[in-house]
């Protein structure tokens, strides 16, 4: 159809413009300006869902995993989207899928791949939580902050879902916590845990490499038999990620 249509002013085929656009698209891709994928949501088990958002790092889309859990009283959000363009679409997608609103949000450390959406969700009336240490680091770094913070490991109950936060020690950051759902044996490790796809520890600018090994041993001892482990980036749900992270830390040291 485009090949048969002509511009009345120049008498040149419009397909020239179309071809130019296609070439520009390929050029952008070849030179690293790949299109950032949209928010994806993947069922994990029962009422648990892993959602993945992306950021452009060095011209390539980089995935960040987070999680939400559907209870009979609303949805629990563990970490926020990385990119602000996904803050509202996530809420919209959750409501469309489950006809429920997010009623609680917890961020597991102060980096923006965990906490970027805290201010946005706080302004939309969603109770937001972090540890006290995460709050202090967020203030120090000028990052988004939660409305509430807890000083020690805390148990939360939202409708028929019960979970606990646990601080095993410094690792990826000084403040990284994990979230554990005992009944379902789901461990959300966030960026403290490295995917089995990772060959290194990734960004370590705020890490405590010396403490990380002991932190992992403490975490493995605390939750020795999880059914699912969710790391902060790349492939998720393999319990092997715990031992894999420990191996990477030992190699780094």
From TrEMBL:
Reactions listed under catalytic activity: a beta-lactam + H2O = a substituted beta-amino acid
Q: What is its EC number?
A: 3.5.2.6
Tell me where the transmembrane regions lie: 12-31
Q: Where found?
A: Periplasm
Q: What highest taxon heads this organism's lineage?
A: Bacteria
Pfam entry (one) = Lactamase_B
Domain Metallo-beta-lactamase residues, every copy? 63-233
Chief location bin: periplasm
Instruction: Say if the entry is tagged with keyword Metal-binding.
Output: yes
Q: Per UniProt, which keywords does this protein have?
A: Antibiotic resistance, Hydrolase, Membrane, Metal-binding, Periplasm, Signal, Transmembrane, Transmembrane helix, Zinc
* Group of enzyme by EC: hydrolase
| Entries under PANTHER family matching the protein | ACYL-COENZYME A THIOESTERASE MBLAC2 (PTHR42951:SF4), METALLO-BETA-LACTAMASE DOMAIN-CONTAINING (PTHR42951)
What family, per the record? Belongs to the metallo-beta-lactamase superfamily. Class-B beta-lactamase family.
Assembly, per entry? Monomer.
The identity of this protein, by name, is: beta-lactamase
């Amino acid at each position: 159809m485009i090949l048969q249509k002509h511009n009345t002013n120049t008498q040149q085929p419009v397909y020239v413009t179309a071809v130019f656009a296609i070439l520009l698209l390929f050029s952008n891709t070849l030179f690293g300006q790949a299109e950032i994928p949209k928010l994806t949501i993947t069922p994990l088990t029962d009422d648990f869902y892993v959602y993945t958002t992306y950021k452009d790092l060095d011209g390539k889309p980089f995935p960040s995993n987070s999680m939400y859990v559907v209870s009979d009283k609303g949805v629990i959000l563990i970490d926020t989207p990385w990119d602000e363009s996904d803050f509202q679409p996530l809420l919209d997608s959750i409501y469309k899928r489950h006809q429920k609103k997010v009623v609680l949000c917890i961020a597991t450390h102060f980096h923006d791949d965990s906490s970027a959406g805290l201010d946005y969700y706080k302004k939309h009336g969603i109770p937001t939580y972090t540890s006290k240490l995460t709050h202090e680091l967020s203030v120090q770094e000028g990052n988004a902050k939660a409305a509430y913070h807890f000083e020690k490991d805390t148990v939360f109950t939202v409708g028929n879902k019960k979970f606990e936060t646990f601080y095993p020690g410094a690792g990826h950051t000084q403040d990284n916590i994990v979230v554990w759902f005992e009944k379902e044996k789901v461990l959300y490790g966030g960026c403290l845990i490295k995917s089995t796809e990772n060959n290194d520890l990734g960004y370590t600018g705020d890490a405590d490499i010396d403490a990380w090994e002991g932190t992992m041993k403490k975490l493995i001892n605390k939750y020795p038999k999880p059914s699912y482990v969710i790391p902060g980036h790349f492939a998720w749900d393999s319990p092997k990620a715990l031992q894999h992270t420990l191996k990477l830390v030992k190699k780094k040291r």
